[in-house]
Amino acid sequence: MPHPHTFEISVFFSLVWVFSDAQDAPWTNRIKAPRLHPCLYIPRFAQLLEFGEKNHEVSMTAMRLVQRMKRDWMHTGRRPSGLCGAALLVAARLHDFCRTVKEIVNVVKVCENTLRKRLTEFEDTPTSQLTIEEFMKVDLDQECDPPCFTAGLLKKKNQQLEMELKKKIGDVEDEIQEYQDEIDAELESRRPKLRGVYAAYANEGYDSKFLSFI
């Protein structure tokens, strides 16, 4: 009797073989799927989020946010839906709409962690410090470094600070040990000198319990 999952397994490996064979085909190298601009998704997502009469205003603000995110290299290597979700959430808050992260995630179809990462990256840009009036009127000339580059620099800086902190802790511990040795030596020098019969036994290593039997 064949295994109940034999058919599913064979279909799976057949699909893997077809996909691998298609990747190796010479004609696949000539096909280049166009990358859609994130702004193309904004109107549809905004309609699903039901902004009512302000739908156009929120969409335009979100598109402007996406354009700024692209200038700050936040779109490179990322799916457009993540940028759209972050832009729509910020635009909604700017126009006094209370849309939650969960509502945005359900519409743009990205995970909550991805959306929060895009928001964190946007928070680190100068644009996030502008008011809505300044944002709609002012175009900042400067561009930020890509988030992955900034994260790499921050990680390297944190590692360097950690190494410096460990070195300082080690130096302090050595200094404390030196002080402790000096204190012990000073206490030892001030201890009264033993004399007489007890001193002789003490120097030979006899304790007080043994002396009690004498």
UniProtKB/TrEMBL annotation:
Compartments reported by the entry: Nucleus
Record keywords: Coiled coil, Metal-binding, Nucleus, Signal, Transcription, Transcription regulation, Zinc, Zinc-finger
GO cellular component: nucleus; transcription factor TFIIIB complex; transcription preinitiation complex
Domain Cyclin-like: 40-124
Coiled-coil ranges (or none): 158-189
GO MF annotation list: RNA polymerase III general transcription initiation factor activity; RNA polymerase III type 3 promoter sequence-specific DNA binding; TBP-class protein binding; zinc ion binding
Domain of life of the organism encoding this protein: Eukaryota
Signal peptide (residue range): 1-22
UniProt GO BP: transcription preinitiation complex assembly
Family statement drawn from the similarity comment of this UniProt entry: Belongs to the TFIIB family.
Protein name per UniProt: (Atlantic silverside) hypothetical protein
Highest classification ranks of the organism: Eukaryota, Metazoa, Chordata, Craniata, Vertebrata
